Amino acid sequence: MPDVGATGSGHPAKPISVDLCASDALVDGGAGLSFDVVYCARPARGFAVRFRGRVYAYLNQCRHVPIELDYQTNQFFDVSGNWLICATHGAMYAPETGACLGGPCRGGLAKIDVTEHAGRVRWHTAPNLFPAD
Ligand code: FES
After folding, report:
1. Cα of 19 to ligand 1 centre, how many Å?
2. Rounded to 10 degrees, what is the CA torsion of 88, 59, 32, 101?
3. pTM across the whole model
4. Which CB contacts under 8 angstroms, 24+ apart, belong to 113-120?
């Protein structure tokens, strides 16, 4: 891990990027990838998906009940491949923004910054978001 200065919590003071996967691991409108994070000092999961060529990532936590969206591992899209869906009660979210589009969600998904370069996808830490150790 790069030495970018540590906070009192032991986490880097400045945002860092974390290698996630090869670009072709994310299927457009299909299988995504979930990953471990620490969010607000608690263990949590994030997930990344590809939609219309671009990669997006969110905290894997529904805005209805704070549980993970995927019932089948890494499956976040509905059957149409156009919407992210929570498998528990069917809340629907926009892949590009995480906004709630229907169902019982209250608010949108928490976004995680991602970049894609040279065939690799990386996610980026935030003041309340760190890699799991
Ligand atoms: S827990 Fe996601 S819709 Fe109810």
Report:
1. 29
2. 60
3. 0.90
4. 113/57, 114/20, 114/48, 114/55, 114/56, 114/57, 115/17, 116/23, 116/54, 116/55, 119/22, 119/23, 119/24, 120/19, 120/20, 120/21, 120/22, 120/23
Ligand 1 cavity residues, CB under 6 Å: 62, 64-65, 67, 86, 88-91, 103-104
CATH fit for domain 33-131, picks 3.40.50.720, 3.30.70.260, 2.40.110.10, 2.102.10.10:
2.102.10.10
Beta bridge partners of 45: 36
How many residues are there in the chain? 133
CA 80 to chain CA mean position, Å: 20
Burial of 5 by CB count in 10 Å (0-12 exposed, 13-18 middle, 19+ buried)? exposed
Report pLDDT digits (tens) over 51-97.
Answer: 999 999 999 999 999 999 998 999 999 999 999 999 999 999 999 99
CA 66 to ligand 1: nearest atom? 1
